[in-house]
Amino acid sequence: MRIGFIGAGKVGFTLGKYLEQKLNKEEIQKNLPETVAVSGYYSRQVESAKEAAAFTNTEAFDDLKKIVCASDVLMLTVPDGRIEAVWDSIKAFDIKGKLICHCSGAMTSNIFSGITEAGAFGYSIHPMYAISSTTKSYREMQKCFFTVEGAEEWGNKLCRFIRLLGNDCVLLSTENKTKYHAAAVFASNLVNGLYGSAVSLLEDCGFEEKQAEQALVPLFMGNASHIAEDGPVAGLTGPIERNDTTTVKKHLNVLDANEKHIYISVSEAVLALAEQKYSDRDYSEMKKILSGQE
């Protein structure tokens, strides 16, 4: 089985390099029903395909039809807005029996309209990781969790393949894909917003931006490490957890309308965790404060 990449950006470089390294290991190949290898790359920018091919020791294709013919699995590692257009080009060829996969966290396999009629199989394969570097992120992929979305026929096989690489994987139903992606946003992008708000509050207190970052990084990293090691309930600290209603009232009194909205929304989620941690503690007054009843 040969895996071809259409799109030579950060995701394509990273997944291709990771697969190329893993599939060169005898202990992985011997557990596969057939030999698996990366065929190479196609990109609208020929130079990008050549760079990716050189980086992964594979082949650069200068024609879309050539990589389609040379590959059993096609990974569409292009921006979300390009997936449908690339698919429309691919389905003009003979793709019977092939697996067509995209790597979008937000989109489902339903983007591959008419794939059943074409005799092919469509899936989304999403690495739950922020791939930030074209040439370095592959080193971090061993700890990455993957999800596969699509029909069970090949979905379970794809999950087993990913687990053989040493990564955990879950097969998602199509209807749960959007909620899954929202979960990823909560744990990553939205944290950026909270951190940015913290920097702004310190700047209001007279900190320079660099000083604010310097002050917050140890707090942020320590908390993130604690959550990662012990989970969000055990890792919980702060005035909500302590049921410190006096401090929470003081916070709300000094925040502007937008800051207060963020503080209350996130604090309500924190309160739910605190109630799990201390089931015998009465948080009724805290709930009233957060709901604006006090």
Automatic annotation (TrEMBL):
<dbReference type="InterPro" id="IPR018931">
    <property type="entry name" value="DUF2520"/>
</dbReference>
<dbReference type="InterPro" id="IPR008927">
    <property type="entry name" value="6-PGluconate_DH-like_C_sf"/>
</dbReference>
<dbReference type="InterPro" id="IPR037108">
    <property type="entry name" value="TM1727-like_C_sf"/>
</dbReference>
<protein>
    <submittedName>
        <fullName>DUF2520 domain-containing protein</fullName>
    </submittedName>
</protein>
<dbReference type="InterPro" id="IPR036291">
    <property type="entry name" value="NAD(P)-bd_dom_sf"/>
</dbReference>
<dbReference type="Pfam" id="PF10728">
    <property type="entry name" value="DUF2520"/>
</dbReference>
<feature type="domain" description="DUF2520">
    <location>
        <begin position="144"/>
        <end position="268"/>
    </location>
</feature>
<dbReference type="Pfam" id="PF10727">
    <property type="entry name" value="Rossmann-like"/>
</dbReference>
<dbReference type="InterPro" id="IPR019665">
    <property type="entry name" value="OxRdtase/DH_put_Rossmann_dom"/>
</dbReference>
<feature type="domain" description="Putative oxidoreductase/dehydrogenase Rossmann-like">
    <location>
        <begin position="2"/>
        <end position="127"/>
    </location>
</feature>
